[in-house]
Automatic annotation (TrEMBL):
Gene Ontology, cellular component aspect: cytoplasm
Protein name: Serine acetyltransferase
Pathway info: Amino-acid biosynthesis; L-cysteine biosynthesis; L-cysteine from L-serine: step 1/2
Signal peptide location: none
Keywords linked to the UniProt accession: Acyltransferase, Amino-acid biosynthesis, Repeat, Transferase
Example GO biological process: cysteine biosynthetic process from serine
Amino acid sequence: MPQLKTNLAKLDPVWAQIRGEAEEAVKAEPLLGGLVHACILHHNSIEKALAYRISTKLASSEMSEQILREICDEAYGADESLAMSARADIVAVYDRDPACHRFLQPILFFKGFQAVQGYRISNWLWREGHKDLAYFFQMRSSEAFGIDIHPGARIGKGIMIDHAHSIVIGETAVVGDNVSMLHSVTLGGTGKEEEDRHPKIGDGVLIGAGAKVLGNIKVGNCSRIAAGSVVLEDIPAKKTVAGVPARIVGEAGCATPSQTMNQVIERGFDD
């Protein structure tokens, strides 16, 4: 058994860490043993654990857990990038959210992480041509988590959505790698146009709570959008914007705002 654990840690260090934490959690809180065993310890891979967790959260009288789990298993088997992105998301949440102390927490408890993984399955279905099934996943994620991500949106890896209530991401939105956003963020359109109508968010961007980014505009890499801002125009890379409508108020303040999570606008920026 020790050799097996060593090999697992080398092959998949994120999953090895999650299983180790799960074993400790059962010892520390026996009343959660059933949940932890069902979600983590009964599975031999992170793909199986994610498929189980997503299917249990999204199951309803309209679509059983078994059917949803088969869909998730097929998706993870067909596209290894889904689980790789999930691993990056777990590490991102652990690194950036001060309330996250273990890799185990996002899978078990954090609806932002869970909703993003549900989106990743719906996006795979969308790309495979199963659009009605993709819409079902979107609907159930919205009902279960209060987060509405269109399956046609393109979202990178290393995503952290903190608190995660009332997130809306539209069909033609693009979100780069290593983006962080807080609750009530909208990446929306500006009217009834049906073509490319949603924002393009670069890598390493930090989007504050309640910010609205509207229209087919570009937000440059490693920029910051202050809480409550309404962004209607392109933002250059490495800038901070604030206000309604948002305007540039200074530099981003660091090389990686989405990782430092510093949302304070320092004095000395242009009036």
